[in-house]
Design goal:
four-stranded mixed beta sheet, 9 strands, homooctamer, five-stranded parallel beta sheet, 213 residues, alpha/beta, 2 domains
Chain lengths: 213, 213, 213, 213, 213, 213, 213, 213
């Protein structure tokens, strides 16, 4: 029952490589999509892919931190346009999902880890380097204060990704999400909680407009 | 007590004209900022400005629908890069706040009104025209389904602005906000509820990267 | 303690075959109800039935995707009146629960999978076929935008079933539920989250009126 | 700015007379739609229409309890198919909005007021009469228990409309809404809080299928 | 660290036998309290006691449905004053916790199971018998409509216990709790979700006043 | 439209004098009920009655603090069984609603004001006097800690009434409500927020059982 | 009814001058407390005092920004120990309530306005001066990021006061509150939303320990 | 990927020993930080450290109740300034986390267990001893009433730590958190749910100011 009806044209239509969210899909469904992609020699990115399932899939390049796997990624285009910044060590898996999604589409991102605002000097020492990028993705949980500070200092595109890190009043990322949305830094936009993939796709939407210009 | 310490350099720093959110500020504070801007011959955009207060301020170009006023706006740069789309008639004030913020910064936006998905033909008839823009701002309340449909069809940057329209389960815009964040269209980012100003600022961040390229 | 007092007359009273929600019931309770039904040669539908428990029950026709089992289902009445539409692959279990509930009551439903609005052409290609049915059940999670689009195009009864698919701002189906309730498409009604069974029962209520007419 | 782009074909498409939610629209917008309808000699229903505004509009048949107005309603088709039931006195405005929407579309509904379950005998005395209708709309606030009782006794279509009546834990209708969704009566579907209009539209969707049969 | 400082006088002070909520306590803590009670030959009721832990405790009379255990319960006082009513099969564990707490304190309760309002005749057939009790405890989840119906028909004390049964909009018992609090039946009071113990203690408070009179 | 169908027998059935919640009812509806009661020479209590409306109603004994009015109250039965305790000055209107409801039914309550736990000595000085009553109603907002302290010291019936006093995290009484429900004092039951009327009705249910004994 | 029972000893007991929250109290109650204090020649601070009411009270020193009034404040003790920092112009009334409460108790606070993190240079320029104080009160709404940055740089006591400024996802201060609680800066504690008075009282508790040392 | 960039200077900057929250960090990350600290002979406190992981780390002094481990703690400074008070047995792990954090920094705290307000005499017997400390940390879940009572009696610093103990309306600690924030006791500040570490750090911030005085 319920064969997957995959939207192979979406990539062409909105310029983002084919990607599948594996959470909520059965092993048979994921394996079927992968087989189909391999037959078409199409690029395919699998996100939220369980490590145990990944091991049972052939020929996939898998990254355990971000739980992403791919076949036929794009060659690196060396744009140097994107920077990904994290507040704390626990935000790394989400940041890595964004990095991998960008790499799959040909954009190596510069990574700046662990510059949460409680240690302000770590951040200020890196701000000029961060601000030189066209797109900055800020990955932060708990109070997500990093997005406001970066948004106030960086002239380019700033995309906030709240993470589900923290406990109690962090409310599984809802607080970080709301704080980024209510940020006093003008023009920061936000993705869903833990959605590193979505932030990367937003960056790709921007880059297309720019590189086609 | 409590004189306003205004951040006149932010405009230069992140490339967005000086703007002040008037909600929560006293008449004296708003009038003081305006006087200061006029003395410096600086551009100034006032948002969420009460019509009654606007009438008492001299020399302001005021728009009642969006409740915005300005002095010394930038000349139009005729980029044609931005489109603002609304789902319903009641979303117009928020869309207009975005339009005015862009105009103040020199970008006339193309406006597409009342293309909510319940009347799908109105939308599909306009989709090609919408998709030609580098940045599309989608303003929608209630179920905010428009953001997902546009996000799936438009290759450029798509920014969702949830509005507080609707009643009951619309929850003052929280449902539209959550629906946009959970959208199945990849790479749509979101602003705070009713934040047309923020969406425009995000668009300006995107355009800078592009026009400087 | 606490023998089950089963309401065997409800089926006769409101015209829906006997059904039992197994979640929250002990194995002894479920087995007892099943034995009782078999003794009476009564039709019985078991929903939310754990696969491990299903294996220990004799003579049950079990479906693992929907986690439903039955004995003595009604023969198919070939009405062709009902269509079930899903937005994404992960919505299949809920759609299948609705389909099985209808089949148990003698109505084979037409299934249309994976027509979420982010790939609008997949949906528009099927809309005429969907619109021909007297009752359309729309199963969708995350932003649930599909219910609004279908509700705006289909003249018959449209029942929305929000699913718990998605993460973060999807809030376990609460966002899909609220979005369907706040939908701009007039006359769409909604069931509880993941309640495929309830949607099927609502469809049966509609069909009775019609087929008796 | 922002002329209203009205969807005059929707009525034809989904078989529900043209209707406009006036909340959130300016007086100029509402007056414009009304003028347009009058010029076309089209039927038009206005909901959530402020009494003060209604007085300034010409030739409108206005009902203050439901805050609805119309021109060119359909003649009564005497179907006798629909019953509207309320739990308490305060639910009357929402019930009346449903009644007026049905009447505008040619269906006079039977009204049963004030049969909340705390006075069970008032309800049981009316249950047989209620159960004879093809569609029963249950309007109830606070605990909304009436929907479950009616849903368990009536074989036809049962549509629940939670109302915003009550205080404290009634939470502006959220409790009634959730209680109806979680109802133990199978096949009851639900509309948004206070959405009498939507419940009537759902009834019309059902009746079309039936009367065309 | 952190020896338990137990309040052995509370029973004497407010007339309720010593009881300990085991959830959140370590095995050593529970065993220590039990040993202490046995040494004093004091009555002791343990609630929310894990079955695996119960097996490792000596000389405890344990009931697996309610997850309660006791030593030295009071002899039955045959008051016949209390009735416990449940809506559905899944509410039995909570009802049983109330029943066991009452029995531990010398009051055998009359149990009426599975009289949820969706099968109204099951309830009405029992209402006169229920109404003869001085205290009626109503245990119900999901929409909790039973509390309102019983509250409207029973002249004595009515205590509602919402249960965490149900899914989706049932929200782990929050909906049942809110619905009981917002009930239209006057003078129904409510305990925490799943708090059968608390309802029994409230009944004991009522009975003391009465039997001492 | 929508005449009120009043349940005049409820008083006889559950032993509580006729009462009407005026919030949400029109002036015509309230006046009609009052006229009807006067014609029947029946007792009638009106709660949540606006002062301006009260002035326009004839022959009503009105209390502005509790916003209650009555005709034909019961004579005082001098039971001395009930005590009402408040935490702070702002809780007085709710306490007064309970007091008036009891007085209308023939029970003068003892009032103990302003014994919130932050000034513990004020409370401990009164605890013995409070504990002598069969029923203690605790009216408290904000953290509602008073209910727990009283519940732990008083052997009789303890009914908590959370009030909507306070700001921010008090959340309009939701925090007081939740804190009372989660109270560590066994057997405290709770009414809806600000529901002094309901607490009084619960006390009346108890007293009937006792005085009939 | 309900005379105020004022706790005149609390000041002596916990070392904070007598203060009364006027919100929720009637004019007669406030006037009575003031008269009583004046008769005793006691210091008295009134908070959340409506300006219109303040005008009708004699001999009160009133501040309209903070809506506080006092009689007989303590002389300034020139400790220089406390600094109050605000993020934005709209946070001033809350900061001023803290400042006034401190002044009433003999502590003039140093005020640092408008150093929200979106303009980081304004803050970093002041950080050394801020860090020299024993107690720093941080008043911030929206994302409340300022508390985290200050908490990470200041060695002394840091108390966060979330404000209700902002709209949409700011949720009336709930987001600022949660963000401060989830802050990555260790040892920052938090008061209720808009509770400048409470923050000042906490500072007084800290200072007592210190000045008594 | 993602090496940890540790902020070794924070301790010096704000005077709190180096501490790491292990939840959300991988074993490799935790082990790396520990190795680094050992190489520097630096003090290090690990919180929320899984017992299984703790066993695999060498030379760590681990406490299973609080799930904390340390190397190189500070010698005890015998200040006797701090008291930690708990409401119930289940609050011990959080209290112990605070105690261990203080001990790691050289401050042995006095512990007062199980003085929840439902057994008021246990608390009042200890209040004088509690009130002699400069800082009192109150650890309480469910209704958290203890914080209000202590806050009203103790003149020194009072820091509330809500715990996640309880079920249903306790909402994982949210109710305790809100109740503490809304407390009627002036000047009580609050940490995140279960944040014993944070409360200890706040106490350390206070003590530094005091001991340096």
């Amino acid at each position: 029952m319920s064969e997957v009806v995959f939207d192979w044209d979406r990539g062409a239509r909105i310029g983002i490589g084919e990607a599948v969210l594996c959470a909520g899909k059965s092993e048979a469904q994921v394996a079927g999509i992968l087989r189909d992609a391999r037959d078409r020699r199409a690029p395919l990115l699998l996100t939220r892919l369980d490590p145990a399932l990944a091991e049972r899939l052939d020929g996939l390049e898998y990254d355990a931190v971000s739980r992403t796997g791919w076949i036929n990624p794009a060659p690196d285009r060396a744009t140097g346009a994107i920077c990904i910044v994290t507040a704390g060590t626990s935000d790394a898996p989400v940041a890595r999902e964004a990095e991998r999604t960008l790499a799959f589409n040909g954009h190596a991102a510069e990574m700046v880890f662990d510059v949460g605002v409680a240690g302000l000097h770590r951040l200020t020492a890196r701000l000029d380097a961060i601000a030189r990028h066209r797109v900055v993705i800020v990955v932060a949980g708990m109070d997500a204060a990093l997005a406001s500070v970066v948004g106030g200092q960086v002239p380019g595109v700033v995309i906030g990704v709240p993470t589900s890190q923290g406990y109690g009043a962090a409310r599984g990322g809802e607080t970080a999400l709301a704080a980024m949305l209510a940020s006093c830094a003008a023009g920061v936009t936000v993705t869903n909680i833990d959605n590193g993939f979505g932030a990367a796709c937003a960056a790709l939407r921007h880059l297309r407009g720019w590189s086609d210009g």
